[in-house]
TrEMBL record, chain A:
Domain (SUF system FeS cluster assembly SufBD N-terminal) ranges: 26-158
Signal peptide: none
The protein, known as: Fe-S cluster assembly protein SufD
InterPro entries referenced in this protein's UniProt entry, alphabetically: Fe-S_cluster_assembly_SufBD, SUF_FeS_clus_asmbl_SufBD_core, SUF_FeS_clus_asmbl_SufBD_sf, SufBD_N
Family: Belongs to the iron-sulfur cluster assembly SufBD family.
Domain called SUF system FeS cluster assembly SufBD core: residue spans: 176-398
Pfam family, one: SufBD_N
PANTHER family, per the entry: PROTEIN ABCI7, CHLOROPLASTIC (PTHR43575:SF1)
GO biological process, one term: iron-sulfur cluster assembly
From TrEMBL, chain B:
Listed name of the protein: Iron-regulated ABC transporter membrane component SufB
InterPro entries the UniProt entry points to: Fe-S_cluster_assembly_SufBD, SUF_FeS_clus_asmbl_SufB, SUF_FeS_clus_asmbl_SufBD_core, SUF_FeS_clus_asmbl_SufBD_sf, SufBD_N
Top-level taxonomy: Bacteria, Pseudomonadati, Pseudomonadota, Alphaproteobacteria, Rhodobacterales
Entry superkingdom: Bacteria
Residue ranges constituting the SUF system FeS cluster assembly SufBD core domain according to the UniProt record: 236-478
Annotated Pfam families: SUFBD_core, SufBD_N
GO BP annotation list: iron-sulfur cluster assembly
Domain SUF system FeS cluster assembly SufBD N-terminal: 172-227
Length: 428, 507
């Protein structure tokens, strides 16, 4: 079917400003196929059902809207943790600021280096999970990324590295437009912790494809930087084998527009997938979590826990879906999305969906929205806790269920600390 | 089956058990057809057909124009495809849009003049069109003490209203209850003011189609401060083949009034799917309350998914005044395809909307149903309880919207939708939309999907029930919250329906 004219125009205008990066045959053909997919789908528009609550125009515009850089003066996140830093500045790899990219138990290199090789393990993965994730719902921004991402990191995990890998995204140019694509393969029995932090660019489009083999484990903790005006569209595509574990947590503070999509497919029995997120938004802030989890194996577990604190007219969106395919018996699916609206102007828009074709399953979803609990507030006040402090305490308590999804205590403390500071800055 | 039907409900015998067992005995009970000579308008939909329907109803010019405008709009509209239902393309030109019994050439002036065959039809359905104290729709209810409970019935047969009972008595109370065609002739000022004011002509594809070709339906007006002295009910029967039924119901509850309205429907068993596209509009003024209950039992198609009714219905209630209250209760067991979202617009401050639904799908049935709660006024409250049961190869979807507008301060919504799957070939889906645009409102949504609890089944089996009985009992328990909201006339029938629809699903 032909695309509507407006959609076609938007798509062509965006594509006109992009050039496909050079690379070996396998990568070039994957990129060409992705470009064809973008043309066939068209970039998202306001009238698309999947973009009902988020306006995609600034994400699809040919030129990224400017975003002032922001120097918080804070110690970099995860500084207390022994980690391997891979630094991108405005979407460009910085060798000087990165650590020496070598770690026992993993093979790690830049996408642009891998691109130069005719034979590479990433050949079967690059764009493959993204392609699989286009059905039943189209994600054109991810296909655009596969076609035109300039760099990224490819990681193959064969052991259990002692240090986590930390991708740091620095933003120094107010008009930068970054597109990065990461490919991660966790081999059987292997395990990786991936940390990501920083605002990356004025506009960021990042795709992470994660293939977790049988009994492999992938842990992911990410924060998205404090720059107020940045925009981001991120996609994680995950595939889980038998007894594989996938746990991802994202904290978002500030940013004008964020759309985080997470698309997981559980194809091996007894796999576990947890996706969690907190966002704290103030003012001109629009945050969208879109999650799609497909159960296609027996006895798998999935959890989605999303909490949003919104004030001064901020908007929180949650679109979550659990799809249990025919035969995916004994599925345990759980989904909760909650928002705490700190004032009259903020809003929360949610679409928590279930689609179930197997009878021996337990799936539940819950979604709530409301103001701070006056009774709890009164209780704390009556115990001598000041109003502002009491409000913050209750806000942190509200976020706790999601934050607790982070298994590692040191990482969890880092995140809680950031959230406390965010609240503290807004007191008074 | 006969033997079971003759069982009298004795004191001390659990009505539920008897009904369940009775229900298990038979398949679709309303699948027979009445043999009366029918008169059809030519097949297809053209402006001439629209004019013909209007003429047959002796409508004034403005109504004909209204319909023609709707027809023009319909031509511009596209059939919605977002629902999780799958059915062959409908050829809208291969349908009859108007069918009435030949004996209606001359409109019968009273029920005494109506063709006895038609009266028999309704008697057979358990809806006697006689003014007597009786519980409508419940077999064997003659034995039960009726104690002055009266139900006024408007019976619609294909495209025409056969008759309305208790009209005189209702008139004494000031309540107008008649067919919509009669209302257009007798009360044009009310119809003009309210028709299309809740569901606009161009609201959606099927509502627009209905606006152009609706043939009959019921009209209710309850004047200020009046508590309608009896329950009102409309019974829709599709009888003719290849004929769509397009009824239109308009209910107006003026300030401080109360009315409880029941709707029932059945159709003969046929191989070819038939279309039913109705529109129900309810206007509720200050302090008024309307209860609208439906037991939808259209022919669901046979066990191979052949035939059945396509039920594409737009129902909406507008709580215009402060403290207005509406309650939708629906039991959906019939229809091959259901596309139905009874909605509440809570415009008045402190107004309340409630939606209770049980949707049961079996064999190849598909249901995409739910509600919309649109909170506009302050301190508005809504509650949604939806239970979906899917068996065989059926697909059952709850689709709903809860929207809290910025001005709807201190509003409250609670939604609970549960799904039960019986068998491994069916599906249950939940698609809620939640939009909260102010912080003083609280919205809670909960949904679960599970299969019939093995422990509960085991417990029942251990007490000597066979497996089907046990499933029916567990399911009835699961549905209890909804069934309790039904008026008594329906509660019993509904429990029976729960058992019928699950027949054959275990094993």
């Amino acid at each position: 079917m032909a695309l509507p004219q407006l959609k076609q125009d938007t798509t062509e205008a965006r594509l006109a400003g992009l050039t496909r990066p050079e690379g070996a045959g396998w990568l070039t053909s994957a990129r060409a196929a992705a470009e064809a997919r973008v043309r066939a789908m068209g970039l998202p528009g306001r009238r698309d059902e999947y973009w009902k609550y988020t306006r995609p125009d600034t994400l699809t515009a040919p030129v990224a809207p400017k975003a002032a850089t922001f120097e918080s003066g804070e110690t970099p996140l995860f500084d207390a943790i022994d980690r391997l830093r891979v630094v991108f500045v405005d979407g460009v790899f910085s060798a000087e600021e990165s650590d020496n990219i070598a770690l026992e138990g993993i093979e790690i290199e830049r996408l642009s280096d891998a691109a130069g090789r005719d034979i590479h393990w990433a050949k079967d993965l690059y764009g493959a999970l993204e392609t699989a994730g286009q059905d039943p719902v189209e994600r054109p921004l991810a296909a655009l990324n596969t076609g035109f991402a300039t760099d990224g990191v490819v990681i193959r995990v064969t052991g259990r590295p002692i240090r986590p890998v930390n991708i740091v995204y620095l933003h120094r140019d107010d008009s930068s437009d970054a597109m990065l694509h990461h490919v991660i393969r966790v081999e059987e029995g292997a395990s990786l912790t991936l940390l990501e932090n920083g605002p990356a660019a004025a506009r960021l489009n990042v795709v992470t494809e994660v293939d977790v083999a049988d009994t492999g484990a992938f842990h992911h903790v990410r924060t998205m930087g404090r720059d107020h005006e940045r925009r981001a569209a991120t996609h994680i595509f995950g595939r889980l084998g038998r007894e594989a574990t996938f746990k991802s947590f994202t904290a978002t503070m500030n940013g004008q527009l964020t759309r985080n999509e997470c698309v997981l497919e559980l194809i091996g029995d007894d796999a576990i997938a947890h996706v969690a997120g907190v966002c704290v938004g103030d003012g001109d802030f629009h945050h969208d979590d879109t999650v799609f989890i497909t159960h296609d194996a027996v006895n798998c577990e999935s959890r989605q826990v999303f909490k949003k604190v919104l004030r001064n007219g901020a908007t929180g969106v949650f679109q979550g879906k659990i799809l249990v395919k025919d035969g995916a018996q004994k599925t345990d699916g759980y989904q909760i999305s909650q928002s705490l609206l700190l004032d009259e102007d903020s809003q929360f828009l949610a679409k928590p969906e279930l689609e179930i074709y197997a009878d021996d399953v337990a799936c539940s979803h819950g979604s709530t929205s409301g103001a701070i609990d006056e009774t709890a507030l009164f209780y704390l006040r009556s115990r001598g806790v000041a109003q502002a402090e009491a409000t913050d305490l209750l806000t942190l308590a509200f976020l706790a269920e999601a934050v607790e999804e982070i298994e590692d205590e040191a990482l969890r403390d880092e995140i809680v600390n950031r959230l406390e500071h965010w609240l503290l800055r807004r007191r008074g | 089956m006969t033997a079971l039907d003759e069982v009298e409900v004795k004191d001390g015998v659990d009505q539920e058990t008897v009904d369940a067992v009775r229900g298990l005995a038979g398949a679709y009970k309303y699948g027979w057809e009445t043999d009366v000579e029918m008169e059809y308008a030519p097949k297809g939909l053209t402006p001439d057909i629209v004019r013909l329907i209007s003429k047959n109803n002796d409508e004034p010019e403005w109504m004909t124009e209204w319909r023609l405008q709707a027809y023009e709009r319909w031509l511009q509209k596209e059939e919605p495809d977002w629902a999780m239902v799958d059915y062959p393309q409908i050829d809208f030109q291969d349908q009859y849009y108007y069918a009435r019994p030949k004996s209606f050439d001359q409109k019968p002036k009273s029920l005494d003049e109506v063709d006895p065959k038609l009266l028999e039809t309704y008697a057979k359905l358990g809806i006697p069109l006689k003014e007597q104290m009786i519980l409508a729709g419940v077999e064997g209810a003659e034995a039960a003490p009726a104690e002055g409970r009266k139900v006024a019935v408007d019976a619609v047969f294909d495209s025409v209203s056969v008759g309305t009972t208790f009209q005189a008595e209702l008139k004494k109370a000031g309540v107008i209850f008649c067919s919509i065609s009669e209302a257009i002739r007798e009360h044009p000022e009310l119809v003009k003011k309210y028709l299309g004011s809740v569901v606009p002509v161009n609201d959606n594809f099927y509502a627009t189609l209905n606006s152009a070709v609706f043939s009959d339906g019921s009209f209710v007006y309850v004047p200020p401060g009046v508590r309608c002295p009896m329950e009102l009910s409309t019974y829709f029967r599709i009888n003719a083949e290849n004929t769509g039924q397009f009824e239109r119901t308009l209910i107006i509850a003026d300030k401080g009034s109360y009315v409880s309205y029941l709707e029932g429907c059945t159709a003969p068993q046929r191989d070819v799917a038939q279309l039913h596209a109705a529109v129900v509009e309810i206007i509720i003024e200050e302090d008024a309350e309307v209860k609208y209950s439906t037991v939808q039992n259209w022919f669901p198609g046979d066990e191979n998914g052949k035939g059945g009714i396509y039920n594409f219905v737009t129902k909406r209630a507008d709580c215009r005044g402060d403290r207005a209250k509406v309650m939708w209760t629906q039991v959906e067991t019939g229809s091959a395809v259901t596309w139905k979202y009874p909605s509440c617009i809570l415009r008045g401050d402190d107004s309340q909307g409630e939606f209770y639904s049980i949707a049961i799908t079996n064999n190849y049935q598909q249901a995409d149903t739910g509600t919309k709660m649109i909170h506009l006024g302050k301190n508005t409250k809504s509650r949604i309880v939806s239970k979906g049961i899917s068996a065989g190869h059926a697909q059952n979807t709850y689709r709903g919207l809860v929207s809290m507008h910025p001005k709807a301060k201190n509003s409250r919504n609670y939604t609970q939708c549960d799904s039960l799957l019986i068998g491994s070939e069916c599906g249950a889906h939940t698609v809620p939309y939640i939009e909260v645009r102010n912080n003083s409102s609280r919205v809670e949504h909960e949904a679960t999907t599970s299969k019939v609890d093995d422990d509960q089944l085991f417990y029942c089996r251990q007490r000597g029930m066979d497996e089907e009985e046990a499933v029916a009992l567990v399911v009835n328990g699961f549905c209890k919250e909804v069934l309790q909201a039904l008026p008594m006339e329906f509660a019993m029938e509904a429990q029976q329906l729960v058992a019928i629809s699950l027949e054959g699903s275990v094993g």
